[in-house]
Amino acid sequence: MPQLNHLQACCAPPFRNELECAEIYTFQTDVPILEHESHCRCVGGLSHFYAASLQKYYRWHYTKVLSDDQASNILGNYVKSTTDDQLFLVASVRHRGDEILHRWRKRSHRKREALLKLAEPDLPKTKGFIADLEYDNVDLRTLREKRRKCFLLPYLDVQTLVKDPNKLIGLIHHRANYPIEAWVNFDHDQLRCSWSSGYLDVEYNPGCVFMYGPDYGKLTAYDWQATHRLQVVGFPRARLTFEAQATLMSFLRRIVELLLDRVPEEQPASATNWNELIRGGLKTPGEVSSWSSFTHQPFSPPPTFDVDVLLSQAAARVDATGDHLWLLQTEPSYLKRNLSNMSRLASIQSARALPHAASSKLTVQELHADIQLHWFWKDVLGLSHQLREAYAAHQVAFDSAAPISEETDDLLYDLEVLLIRGAQ
User: Fold this and answer.
1) In this structure, are residues 245 and 217 in contact, taking their beta carbons and an 8 Å threshold?
2) pLDDT tens per residue, range 257-296
3) CA 319 to chain centre
4) Measuring CA to CA, which residue among 170, 168, 140 is closest to residue 156?
5) Which residue has the higher pLDDT, 63 or 348?
6) Which of 2, 16, 133, 234 counts the most CB atoms within 10 A of its CB?
7) Residue 33 and residue 56 in contact, taking contact as beta carbons nearer than 8 Å
8) Nearest to residue 20, comparing CAs of 196, 198, 157?
9) What is the C-alpha separation between 321 and 233, in angstroms, rounded?
């Protein structure tokens, strides 16, 4: 087997046995191995096209080569379908939002599950279904044929939608009321594992697709700089993103149609309760705080990059970690309580049985980690200030699709590297 790049190696599961490996290696196809013109081997390039060294394996071989006309027609159909379904959802929520909310909430768990299965029979029952399928001795070809929609929408399952009725409401509302292209980065990212693991049949065209603006969904020539900015995405990966959007919107439309079945036409339009729920942060009875957009991202507004928000968060973390260090040095009772909490850590308790005061060394390391965390957030805050000044100097909006300056690009890179290292 060839050596996988680090992006594919992190997601692609091993072959279950030598027979499967040989079968995949010797599969028959009329599609030749295709070397894309870019020759780009960075993470960005490999997330748009499959490397030629991997295409001799069934998992990563293209199933068909499409002409520009064929590719454009596929993209156009997906965009039209998604747009039409979104318009339907907008009108339905505006006129029948309260009825949708009432009919969905009053259902028992069993009836909600039945409705979801009626709208989409292939919807998985529980979380973690991808891992279950992969290691349940199911042939890869069968997975591709029967579970394509699951791999396109890996965050959806019956358990998630049934347990908390507000998640479906949030999904419908935010997909209906935000531009389709606002969700591109999120939908693109959700396909990372399915793409790199070869769970999906993928078709090839050498072009790229616009992911923003008036040309959204249109095919264009390959541009490696625009590709690295995600302003365009290589057709093989972009097609999956557009298909995922169309699949989701079609699913939501079918649910709304089922919920509004047999609603009298003379019934007055109303969305008061629906709008109150949205303004209240989609909280269920008894909850104090609103949803976290991090843990509930598929059912919240689409993620956006805002330096001002990052500045505010970094400043709050600097203040919090700075106060913590200051109290450790000036308030004996605070230090004593902090050391007491550290002593209950499993690593320190297990180290007490070791010689040479290992537990004391671990305690010192924990204190040193607090200092490093403070320095980390100071670095994030400093870079965020520089980035904010760079955007202001070049008069570019945060959500603009215009090319950014080299200075801004370097600062974004430095900030990304810092955040990635801080998360490790």
Assistant:
1) no
2) 999 998 887 788 888 999 998 888 887 666 555 566 667 8
3) 30
4) 168
5) 63
6) 234
7) yes
8) 198
9) 40
The DSSP bridge partners found for residue 209 are: 219, 233
Taken in order 39, 41, 45, 49, the sign of the CA dihedral is positive
Q: How far is CA 343 from CA 324, 348, 352, 369, in A?
A: 18, 6, 10, 15
List, for residues 214-262, the tens digit of each pLDDT value: 899 999 998 877 777 778 899 999 999 999 999 999 999 999 999 999 8
For 98-140, how does the pLDDT look when each residue is reduced to its tens digit (9 = 90+)? 999 999 999 999 999 999 999 999 898 888 777 776 666 677 8
Helix or strand or coil: residue 84?
A: helix
CA–CA separation, 104 vs 3, rounded Å?
Answer: 49
C-alpha to C-alpha distance for 281 and 173, rounded to whole angstroms: 12
Up-side HSE of residue 241: CA atoms within 13 Å toward CB? 28
pLDDT for 368 beyond 70: yes
Q: Are strands 203-204 and 64-65 parallel, antiparallel or unpaired?
A: parallel
Q: Answer whether 208's CB lies under 8 Å from 71's CB.
A: no
**pTM score:** 0.78
Distance CA 79, CA 218 (A): 10
Q: How far apart are CA 321 and CA 338, in angstroms?
A: 13
Side chain identity at residue 57, one-letter code: Y
Above 70 in pLDDT, residue 44?
no
Nearest CA-CA partner of 299 in 189, 195, 164: 164
Q: Alpha-carbon distance 347 to 223, whole Å?
A: 50
Nearest Cα to Cα of residue 251 among 362, 384, 116: 116
- Residue 189 CA to residue 183 CA, distance in Å, equals 10
What's the burial of 78, exposed, middle or buried (CB within 10 Å: 0-12/13-18/19+)? buried
Q: What are phi and psi of 265, to 5 degrees?
A: -65, -30
Residue 6: CB atoms within 10 A of its CB come to 9
